[in-house]
TrEMBL record:
Gene3D superfamilies: 4.10.40.20. The keyword Disulfide bond applies. Transmembrane segments: none annotated. Residues 74-152 form the IGFBP N-terminal domain. Pfam families: IGFBP. This is IGFBP N-terminal domain-containing protein. One of its GO terms (cellular component) is extracellular region. Residues 1-25 form the signal peptide. It comes from Conger conger. It comes from the Eukaryota. Keywords: Disulfide bond, Signal. InterPro entries: Growth_fac_rcpt_cys_sf, IGFBP-like, Insulin_GF-bd_Cys-rich_CS. PROSITE patterns: IGFBP_N_1 (PS00222), IGFBP_N_2 (PS51323).
Length: 356
């Protein structure tokens, strides 16, 4: 009979991840002041507009050193967490689970074409490989500006070491042991918030791995499932038998059905959908939390990945010149190049010199 160690560890890790998303974020946490020690759940999180920063950096696999609460950089655009209404964290996301750079709310990372940024980053943080960019132009959006998630050439962010994000501390199970460390990221990087929780899972794994077939068969397992049902104007979540009727909904499906019911009789203004030039694409409309109608309609924004690269196959004695500079606006997103003989300046370069 196959030992259930790996499967049990995976199941418990996923269970803890669900608990951390759905429950831990809602618990009242100890908030530490400027200069106080922070980091682990037992030590507490930093107060509004403070972030937990290690006094000495550690590598993955090393135990994190002491950390203290320090001011959040002013450029982050953060406001007090008490003024922010966090959406309920979803269990399933099309991309990553993240926290916004101010460290107050967990949410699904925004995908290509979705809005981001805003005051306190309340409109979301982009997934890996994407940058929160201004709708027009080719520079990142800086909160409280609202931007759109898309690829931005020449601007790369290491999402596992992002200076805009708070420090996180936690543990993952790797090679049969608890690997605990800290990292500056908005990604949901850890399955376990503390060494204690990680070791508890490891102990359960070891207990089942050491059982004989007879002991495993003697274990009485009752098939139970977690889920939710709509009761009045809210979703109520509970644990029931796997065979109960009707079957429970996932928390995400329950919230979606509740939102659809609430907005069923709401009429939203009809906004024409623009037709975008070939060098751009249509963004997703943005509807704020608990509202039925979009606040921002769908807009055209540049798809920089469609821009042609500078020619490298000019004839001998010729080189590529920019004849029209792209300005990051739909229709004129990209540079236009021509191969010209010798060192002759392009028309755009000449015009810029004349303007100077």
């Amino acid at each position: 009979m196959q030992q259930p160690g790996a499967a049990m560890r995976t199941a418990l890790a996923l269970l803890w991840l669900w608990f951390w998303l759905c429950c831990y974020a809602e618990q009242e946490q100890t908030r530490k002041g400027l200069g106080q020690e922070c980091g682990w759940a037992e030590l507490g999180r930093c107060d509004t507009n403070l972030t937990c920063v290690p006094e000495t950096l550690t590598d993955p696999g090393e135990s994190p050193g002491p950390s203290v609460c320090k001011p959040v950089p002013q450029s982050s655009g953060c406001v007090p967490c008490a003024e922010v209404q966090c959406p309920k964290a979803k269990r399933q996301c099309p991309g990553s689970h993240v926290t916004e750079p101010c460290g107050c709310c967990q949410h699904c990372a925004r995908q290509r074409g979705q809005v981001c940024g805003g005051p306190h980053w309340e409109r979301g943080y982009c997934d890996r490989g994407l940058t929160c960019t201004r709708f027009l132009g080719h520079v990142p959006a800086t909160p409280p500006e609202t931007g759109v998630c898309k690829a931005l050439p020449g601007y790369r962010v290491d999402h596992w070491a992002d200076p805009h994000c708070p420090w996180q501390w936690g543990c993952n199970i790797r090679a049969g042991s608890c690997d605990c460390y800290g990292t500056q990221t908005c990604q949901l990087a850890f399955a376990y918030h503390s060494m204690r929780d990680c070791m508890k899972t490891m102990e359960e794994d070891w207990r089942y791995a050491g059982m004989t077939e007879e002991e495993l068969e003697a274990e009485q397992w009752e098939c139970m499932t977690n889920g939710c049902e709509i009761q009045g104007d809210k979703c109520v979540c509970m644990k029931k038998s796997c065979f109960s009727k009707p079957p429970l909904l996932s928390e995400d499906d329950c919230e979606n059905q509740l939102e659809q019911t609430r907005c069923a009789n709401v009429s939203c203004p009809i906004v024409p959908v623009p037709s975008c030039p070939p060098d751009s694409f249509l963004t997703a409309p943005y509807t704020p939390l608990h509202q039925c109608c979009p606040l921002l309609p769908a807009l055209c924004t540049c798809a920089f990945e469609r821009c042609p690269a500078e020619p490298t196959d000019c004839p001998p004695g010729h080189r590529a010149h920019i004849v029209t500079r792209g300005d990051g606006h739909p229709g004129t997103c990209c540079h236009r190049y021509l191969c010209r003989r010798g060192e002759e300046e392009s028309a755009t370069q000449k015009r810029e010199e004349e303007e100077d």
